[in-house]
Structures are given as structure tokens and as C-alpha cells.
Design brief:
Length: 292
């Protein structure tokens, strides 16, 4: 590919910074579009270009995409997700950006439709991308280890409990580092591998199994407790409504899936839940060094 910079939105978040770090490590020119330029500079130093602005500012977007070769499209769950991402995509097309790689919602929030406000928002953006003349691929990561599983681990360390709406519901958790690796692969590859890619870890693990893995890692009993899911509020904060829907869909077994996308693209197995739990427990329970 040419030396035109790759534009990354959402660069200061958990996943965005992993993508940026990987691109920089490969010597790729990177530009980030952010409302927090001081945070981006603190994270990445002088090694990349920073375009400051908001998704709602078309002039700022036009400046950000000028001269860009490819785009990583990522933004938080919110009521503005569709509006914001469509605006970025349209600005990219106008600037002749060659490829858009979108971080989308989990496949089980999108298909079948009607079960998730977050999934509906991501599906709307995917439809828009599919109608554009620019090459585009949407990555649909399953539940992220660094979000839902990390919260479960922290609760177990503190309370010696794993609490779930259905202890036997399985999840094909995926590590955010594997999501970032696939995103970088699709940004840099000669061609994309399809319109949508469903990304999962190597196996399906239930909450009951997570409790057993935590018992072994912590070397003390971790109880597995079942608790009915919260009622999904009909109004209120978009993110909290979306998360409540995620819990119900997971309890129904919708996230219990695996695919071979990660090993096929990367030539290696995705990271496992067992390894992630051990890594997190080690980090969370490490005794700080004594400082005299």
C-alpha cells in the first residue's frame, strides 16, 4: 500500500490505542481524529499526526481525511453512533479514501434484527457502508475479554463470586488484542476478506467454567451464583439500555459461538479465556514493590 496515512477514530479508547500502537510498530504513518488531542499526544508522543475535532464538525472531518489512504472507523456506543460514523464515512469517500475498516457490534446483537439497540445502530452503519463506492469491511467482535470478562474477574477477586443470569450460558470471548490484530491485518492487506467478519475466541466458556478457572487461579473458592437479569429500561441512557440487552442475549446463549476467522487471517490461535484470567489475576493481585 502507499505511504498515505491511515486515519484512526476512537484512538484513545481501549481498542483504538491497540490499533494505533500496532500500526506505529509496523512503521505505518498514522493520523488520529480526536476530541482529546492532549490525551492522544500523551499516549503516542510525536510519532503520529493528530487531527482535532468532533464528528459533528464536517470541516474538521474534511481536514482529518485529507490525503488519507485507509480508515479505521470506531466510536463509542451512543445515540449518535449512526450519525457520527456515517459522517466520517461520507467524508472519507469524498476524500477518495481507498478502504474503511469498521469495528461493528457483535454478530448476535445484529442478527436477527430487533433485539439490540446497539446492534441496530451498527447494522445501519454497515448498510450505509455497503452502499458506498469505497471498499469496506465490518468486524463483528464477540464479547470482549477486556470489558465483560475483566469485570467478572475483578468482582471475583473482591467478592469471591461469579454472578450471571444463566451460569451455563457460554460465550466465545475474544481478546481485544486479537481484534486489534485483525483490524490491522485488514487495514494493511492487499484485499479485504468479505463485507463482514465475525471474530471470536477459540472456544465457548460458560460462567460456571469461568468460576472454576478463577478458583484455580486465585487458589481459593469462587462461588457461581445465578441472578435474574435486570429489566431493560424502555427509556434513559442509551449505553445502559444497550448493556442490559447484552446481558439478556448472553443469558439466552446467543454469544455461545466460535468462528475460524482469527486463525485463518492471522495464522495463529486466538488468545484463550484461561490465559486471560491468569494474566489478569496475576496483574490485579500483584504485591507492589516496597519503596523505602
Amino acid at each position: 500500500m502507499s505511504e498515505r496515512p491511515i486515519l484512526v477514530t476512537g484512538a484513545t479508547g481501549k481498542l483504538g490505542r491497540l490499533v494505533v500502537e500496532r500500526l506505529l510498530a509496523r512503521g505505518q504513518p498514522v493520523r488520529v481524529f480526536t476530541r482529546r488531542p492532549e490525551t492522544a499526544r500523551a499516549l503516542f508522543g510525536e510519532t503520529l499526526q493528530i487531527a482535532a475535532g468532533d464528528f459533528g464538525d464536517r470541516a474538521a472531518l474534511d481536514t482529518a481525511v485529507r490525503g488519507v489512504g485507509r480508515l479505521l472507523l470506531l466510536s463509542p456506543i451512543s445515540t449518535r453512533l449512526v450519525t457520527d460514523q456515517v459522517a466520517v464515512a461520507d467524508a472519507a469517500v469524498a476524500a477518495n479514501v481507498a478502504r474503511i475498516v469498521k469495528i461493528s457490534g457483535s454478530d448476535w446483537t445484529i442478527e436477527p434484527p430487533g433485539n439490540s439497540i446497539s446492534g441496530e445502530a451498527h447494522a445501519a452503519v454497515e448498510r450505509h457502508l455497503n452502499g458506498l463506492p469505497t471498499e469496506a469491511v465490518s468486524l463483528r467482535p464477540n464479547a470482549w475479554m477486556q470489558v465483560s470478562l475483566a469485570n467478572t474477574i475483578r468482582n471475583a477477586i473482591t467478592n469471591s463470586q461469579v454472578v450471571a443470569a444463566n451460569l451455563d450460558a457460554g460465550i466465545g470471548y475474544i481478546d481485544a488484542r486479537d481484534i486489534a490484530d485483525v483490524a490491522v491485518h485488514q487495514l494493511l492487506a492487499d484485499r479485504i476478506r468479505g463485507r463482514t467478519l465475525n471474530l471470536t475466541g477459540p472456544d465457548v466458556v460458560s460462567f460456571r467454567q469461568v468460576a472454576a478457572l478463577l478458583t484455580a487461579a486465585l487458589k481459593r473458592p469462587v462461588a457461581a451464583l445465578e441472578k435474574p437479569p435486570r429489566t431493560v429500561p424502555k427509556e434513559g441512557d442509551f449505553e445502559h439500555r444497550a448493556v442490559a440487552q447484552f446481558v439478556r442475549l448472553i443469558a439466552a446463549g446467543r454469544a455461545a459461538t466460535t468462528t475460524d476467522v482469527v486463525p485463518t487471517l492471522l495464522g495463529r490461535s486466538p488468545r484463550t479465556v484461561a490465559d486471560f484470567i491468569l494474566e489478569q489475576v496475576t496483574a490485579e493481585t500483584a504485591v507492589p514493590e516496597y519503596q523505602p
